[in-house]
Amino acid sequence: MADFANRRCPRCGKRPLDARLVQCPDCRVPFEYEAVSAPTVTPAQLAAVTKHVLGSWKLWLTLFVVVGAATVGVMEFINLKAQEVKDEAGKEAQTDANATSAKIAEGISNQIETEFQQPRIQATIERVASEKAGDILTNAVWASLDQFREKLQAADEQLAKTTNDLAVLSNNVHQAQLAAAQMAGAVTDDPALLTLVDKSVTRDGTNYDLTMFFRPTNHKPVGTVELMAGTYRQTAKIVNFTARNVDQADAPVLNDIGDAAKLRFTVSHADAQVVVDLTLSAPTLVKLVGDELAEELTLPVAIDQMQLPMVNR
Questions:
Q1: If exposure means fewest CB atoms within 10 Å of the residue's CB, which of 187, 231, 241, 275 is most exposed?
Q2: What is the pLDDT of residues 253-278, one digit of tens each?
Q3: Which range, of 42-51, 110-119, 189-198, averages the lowest pLDDT?
Q4: CB neighbours of 196 closer than 8 A, spacing ≥ 6?
Q5: Number of domains in the chain
């Protein structure tokens, strides 16, 4: 605030004696402030001050710092604004790209939906789906069949092995039984009898060969053997009746119609295996009896092809 002493009445020139007075008490005219004249500086003084100021390194350092700081600030401001503009432009571009992609995807989806609704496309899809389903079903079924076939083959192999093992075991048991019977016969007075251990049927042209393998029941010689063979109700004729691995065998004796025959041979060796061959003209049932047999035998010869005789009523 200007000092009240600088006020003066414009009319009488008096100054106020009290700072609270706003007008001259005599003239009743408001006081006015006197203009303060600025001190005058000579050109020489101004040049000296200028030279002093411009020659100060502190001024130039301060000016360099201020200008540098202002420059850095301006650059940071420019970069910040540029980044904001760039980000804003990127967001707008991304928004435009998303909107464009959505429109393109919507258009393609609508086009695909329209195409799939056409009967030709639907028929093609149904055909391809049917073929694929058929392929999948075929592959699954064939895979299951292959697995089943492999398991069945493995089961057949196991069954064949088990059958062979059972056959070997049965043969071993039979041989043990024969050995036990022979050992028992060696210490008894019972005569040796022939027991059937094996047989086979083979085809010889129109005839059938029945081969029978016998062993004695003990270690004693069997001696003279007389066997009688006959066919079932004249369904076949006896063509030949012989024995092998014996000391002597007589010629067979056949009846008039040829459905029965007798064979006589001698076995003097202990533990000898006797082979008896019977040749027949057709499939039939053969009955073999004799006192030197351990039991009477009824043996089939190709019975699956046998023709039964007609029964008279």
A1: 187
A2: 999 999 999 999 999 888 889 999 99
A3: 110-119
A4: 212, 213, 214, 297
A5: 2
